[in-house]
């Protein structure tokens, strides 16, 4: 669908369907050297001289096409849909300021690498709230936040011994928002060696930014490792993992932990780590109700970082739309020695493989937020602290739960229920602090000769669970 043609969402799906029936063709490596060899500082120095599309039209959202360069080398075609007709956005070098970059005079139309969305509603000053750029990556934030966690429209074979496959955006058709709608719908094409896909994304910015994602996947080959609702983040070190802590800051991370609401209605909390070796965890489930990488620490004192302000990074919560059947929430924790790396990856992995030639639809809703819209009606984990134990390989744990139920009316029969497998624990103690509506559970893990111990901890009273479930994997 090109210039002047009527727009039909069904055609987007048909383009992806036809792509999947043909052998994969990699995008051309046609970016001029002057842009492909840029470092990060040079790339962000490229400034647009033109006003964002739809900026002063009262539509609530404006669009800024993003320049190619640095690691963003692939072309993403951008089309606008206005009054039902398609208009391609062409690249003109005269509309950019390049700083000290010596740009060739005959540059021509090299296209774009993605786009940025700006919220322009009357609720507050304009702010950049979403960036769609690089492979199938995209980011969003709520008002007042800094960019942090990153989403993936499609994840294929992560941590596979033969290497992960990175699908890529190829084209987008952006529907012009109605006046005052504060909502934008983008239709996209994804292509990769193993599959193509048609994508529909609806963005609604605000104090909680909501993104609805609908996709139909067209496998070229049999797929047995697909990630849906994928998201990445950074965990460098914190109170439970200070392996890389020669730093004046007490903690460095964008997300505190992985939260899950499984199909049985149980709330699970898994603190994140920066392990010595790659750790892959699978939380088997059926019909999950939600999962996400959550930033629970909203105090400056937690991080003491004047520049990065990790306490302002978004939580990203995903709710499936429709039936997701059997599968597992997968968590990958990748060792890193630098805080710039996204070393955390979480996604839903369906149990059933997707055969070549199939058409597989799925949908979910993302909440980029300060706090997810659905929260445990239980005491939640406020902190996980880990340090040296009494001897040998033993490790001391202190897990603090908080909630209204742990205040002045603390149940008399409150107890903690801890399981460790393999390994064992000693010196389990429960310390109530009703004045701050908190309970700390302290114990010592004895792993023996084991190199991995799985732990599960809850609070109980009156024979009922009154806290979310704390899960943890210890490794040396």
Outline:
5% of the residues lie in helices and 43% in strands. With 476 residues, the protein is mainly beta.
How would you portray this structure in words?
This protein is mainly β and about 475 residues long. It folds into two domains: about 10-370, Beta-galactosidase, Chain A, domain 5 (Distorted Sandwich), CATH 2.70.98; about 380-475, Immunoglobulin-like (Sandwich), CATH 2.60.40. Helix content is about 5%, strand content about 45%. The protein has four helices and 33 strands. The chain has helices at about 10-20, 35, 40-45, 300-305, and strands spanning about 45-50, 60-65, 75-80, 85-90, 95, 115-120, 125-135, 135-140, 150, 155, 170-175, 185-190, 195-205, 210-220, 225-235, 235, 250-255, 255-260, 265-270, 280-285, 290-295, 315-320, 325-335, 345-350, 360-370, 380-390, 395-400, 415-420, 425-435, 440-445, 455-460, 465, 470-475. The strands form five sheets. The protein has a 15-stranded mixed β-sheet that branches. Strands 2, 6, 7, 8, 9, 10, 15, 20, 23 and 24 form a ten-stranded antiparallel β-sheet that branches. A hairpin with a 4-residue loop joins strand 13 and strand 14 (about 210-220). The N and C termini lie far apart (about 55 Å). The mean pLDDT is about 95. Belongs to the OpgD/OpgG family. This is Glucan biosynthesis protein D. Pathway: Glycan metabolism; osmoregulated periplasmic glucan (OPG) biosynthesis.
């Amino acid at each position: 669908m090109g210039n002047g043609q009527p727009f039909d969402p069904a055609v987007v799906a048909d383009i992806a369907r036809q792509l999947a029936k043909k052998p994969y063709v990699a995008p051309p490596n046609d970016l001029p050297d002057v842009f492909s060899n840029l470092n990060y500082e040079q790339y962000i120095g490229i400034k647009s001289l033109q006003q964002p599309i739809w900026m002063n039209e009262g539509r609530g959202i404006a669009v800024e096409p993003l320049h190619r360069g640095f690691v963003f080398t692939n072309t993403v075609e951008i089309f606008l849909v206005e009054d039902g007709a398609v208009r391609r956005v062409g690249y003109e070098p005269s509309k950019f300021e390049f700083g000290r970059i010596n740009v060739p005079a005959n540059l021509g139309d090299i296209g774009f690498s993605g786009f940025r969305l700006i919220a322009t509603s009357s609720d507050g000053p304009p702010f950049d709230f979403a960036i769609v750029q690089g492979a199938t990556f995209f980011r969003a934030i709520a008002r007042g936040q800094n960019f942090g966690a990153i989403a993936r429209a499609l994840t294929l074979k992560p941590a596979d011994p033969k290497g992960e496959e990175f699908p890529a955006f190829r084209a987008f058709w952006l529907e012009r928002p109605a006046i005052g709608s504060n909502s934008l719908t983008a239709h996209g094409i994804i292509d990769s060696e193993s599959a193509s896909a048609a994508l529909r994304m609806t963005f609604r910015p605000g104090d909680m930014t909501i993104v609805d994602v609908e996709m139909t996947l067209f496998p070229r080959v049999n797929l047995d490792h697909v990630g849906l609702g994928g998201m990445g983040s950074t965990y460098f070190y914190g109170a439970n993992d200070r392996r890389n802590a020669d730093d004046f800051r007490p903690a460095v991370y964008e997300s505190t932990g992985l939260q899950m609401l499984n199909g049985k209605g149980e709330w699970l909390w898994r603190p994140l780590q920066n392990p010595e070796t790659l750790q892959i965890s699978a939380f088997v489930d059926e019909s999950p109700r939600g999962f996400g990488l959550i930033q629970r620490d909203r105090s400056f004192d937690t991080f003491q970082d004047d520049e990065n302000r990790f306490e302002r990074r978004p939580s990203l919560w995903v709710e499936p739309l429709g039936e997701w059947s059997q599968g597992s929430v997968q968590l990958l924790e990748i060792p890193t020695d630098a805080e710039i790396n996204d070393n955390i990856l979480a996604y839903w992995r369906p149990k059933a493989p997707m055969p070549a030639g199939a058409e597989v639809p799925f949908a979910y809703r993302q909440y980029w937020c300060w706090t997810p819209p659905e929260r445990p009606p239980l005491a939640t984990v406020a902190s996980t602290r880990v340090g040296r134990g009494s001897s040998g390989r033993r490790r001391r744990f202190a897990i603090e739960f908080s909630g209204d139920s742990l205040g002045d009316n603390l149940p008399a029969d409150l107890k903690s229920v801890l399981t460790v497998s393999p390994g064992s624990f000693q010196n389990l103690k429960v310390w109530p602090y009703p004045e701050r509506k908190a309970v700390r559970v302290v114990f010592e893990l004895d792993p023996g000769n084991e190199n991995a111990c799985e732990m599960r901890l809850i609070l109980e009273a009156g024979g009922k669970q009154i806290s979310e479930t704390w899960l943890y994997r210890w490794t040396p």
